[in-house]
């Protein structure tokens, strides 16, 4: 059985505690989804994701898996879950953002997007219909409608035209759906224009989806503008469906978004920053290459019980990073994803006890200290 239920709601705000049921298991929300772009979360095995970071659900990338190794091959080999050895829930994006951010010589038309592969320069075409076909072939539990990620900056007319195209593609995405064992989410665009965000929300809800996402953020608009959109439109999204904020962000971002009623989040930040030697701690980010950690015997975070913090000193982790050892990325990724998932677990417990605002204030006071 698939679907969403609200378990608790904040008594004096919009934050809520919920559960998404999929055929591969349930996801407790609010939740963070590690990004497994090419059917792998860089540096970790699926077992480590579960045992060491408490990940509930991962995100895979339609665009990248379409280009290599190909969705037909993955389907032939039993679907993306079997292909990568992941037994839990999975979400796939539609490919729209990657066409916008990665592809050269792209041409956007009513029918879809023609683009050149960054791998070998070959020409490809993605449409609402083919995006849904690819995602269903992959076998994801949550799939996304194909959208145009509105660039920033965009004029009012550009943003209006873009959201109108996304709305038409949303209708085609829903019509193209063939499987009934997944959840299909629609995406709300509109750049930073409140009127256009409202219009996109209205048009997306008219189509009718299992969940709704705020897209087109964290693309250069700045934190204040992003927060304006999240805080105004998070509470306006359909109450009894999952609400997903795409591609965001920092621990502070997640707390702001949860307060606005959002349920689901993904971002490359904890894994990408890990590979660059940046650790998240309850006192804020820590850059391990700094010379002051050369002889430091302490763990990365004295309030963390992850594998990395239980077993290794800052001095050793600095040595690994300076030496460019693969283990540096592995241990940093374990810690950062554990940090994000512990934050989400703490939020869920606070919501169950009706003390989310206190939790948020306490966390941010320490984090910004």
Task: Offer a concise description of the structure.
With about 375 residues, the chain is of the alpha/beta class.
List the helices and strands and how they pair.
Elements: E1 3-9, E2 16-22, E3 25-29, E4 31-33, E5 35-36, H1 46-53, E6 58-60, H2 62-67, H3 71-76, H4 80-84, E7 90-92, H5 96-102, E8 104-109, E9 112-116, E10 123-126, H6 128-138, E11 142-144, H7 156-176, E12 183-188, H8 194-207, E13 211-214, H9 223-233, E14 243-245, H10 251-259, E15 264-266, H11 269-275, E16 278-279, E17 286-287, H12 307-311, H13 314-322, H14 326-352, H15 356-367
Parallel strand pairs: 4-15, 5-6, 6-7, 7-11, 11-12, 12-13, 13-14, 14-15
Antiparallel strand pairs: 1-2, 2-3, 8-9, 9-10, 16-17
- The CATH architecture of the largest domain comes to Alpha-Beta Barrel
What is the highest CATH level, the class of the largest domain?
Alpha Beta
CA-based gyration radius: 20 Å
Discrete helix count: 15
Description:
This protein is an alpha/beta fold and 369 residues long. The chain has 2 domains: 264 residues, TIM Barrel; 102 residues, no CATH class. Helix content is 43%, strand content 18%. It contains 15 helices and 17 strands. The strands form 4 sheets. A 9-stranded parallel β-sheet has the order 4-15-14-13-12-11-7-6-5. A hairpin with a 6-residue loop joins strand 9 and strand 10. The longest helix is centred in the C-terminal third of the chain and has 27 residues. The chain starts with a strand and ends with a helix. The mean pLDDT is 96.
């Amino acid at each position: 059985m698939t679907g969403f239920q609200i378990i608790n709601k904040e008594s004096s705000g919009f934050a809520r505690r919920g559960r998404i049921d999929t055929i591969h298991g349930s996801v407790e929300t609010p939740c963070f989804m590690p990004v497994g772009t090419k059917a792998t979360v860089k540096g970790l095995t699926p077992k480590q994701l579960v045992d060491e970071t408490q990940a509930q659900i991962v995100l895979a990338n339609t665009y990248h898996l379409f280009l290599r190794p190909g969705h037909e091959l993955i389907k032939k080999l039993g679907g993306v879950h079997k292909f990568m050895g992941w037994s839990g829930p999975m979400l796939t994006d539609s490919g729209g953002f990657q066409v916008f951010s990665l592809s050269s010589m792209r041409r956007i038309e009513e029918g879809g997007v023609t683009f050149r592969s960054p791998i070998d320069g070959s020409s490809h075409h993605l449409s609402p219909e083919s995006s849904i076909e690819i995602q269903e072939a992959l076998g994801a539990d949550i799939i996304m409608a194909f959208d145009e990620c509105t660039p920033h900056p965009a004029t009012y007319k550009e943003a209006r035209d873009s959201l109108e195209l996304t709305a038409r593609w949303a209708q085609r995405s829903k019509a193209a759906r063939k499987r009934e064992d997944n959840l299909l989410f629609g995406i709300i665009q509109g750049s930073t224009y409140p009127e256009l965000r409202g219009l996109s929300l209205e048009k997306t809800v008219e189509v009718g989806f299992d969940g709704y996402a705020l897209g087109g953020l964290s693309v250069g608009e700045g934190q204040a503008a992003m927060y304006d959109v999240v805080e105004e439109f998070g509470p306006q999204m359909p109450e009894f469906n999952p609400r997903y904020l795409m591609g965001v962000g920092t621990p502070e971002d997640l707390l702001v978004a949860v307060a606005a009623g959002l349920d689901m989040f993904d971002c490359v930040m904890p894994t990408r920053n890990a590979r660059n030697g940046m650790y998240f701690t309850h006192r804020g980010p820590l850059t391990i290459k700094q010379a002051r950690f050369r002889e430091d015997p302490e763990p990365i975070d004295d309030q963390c019980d992850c594998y990395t913090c239980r077993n290794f000193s800052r001095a050793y982790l600095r040595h690994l990073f300076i030496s460019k050892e693969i283990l540096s990325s592995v241990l940093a990724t374990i810690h950062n994803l554990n940090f994000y998932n512990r934050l989400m677990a703490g939020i869920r417990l606070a919501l169950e006890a009706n003390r989310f605002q206190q939790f948020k204030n306490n966390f941010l006071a320490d984090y910004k200290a």
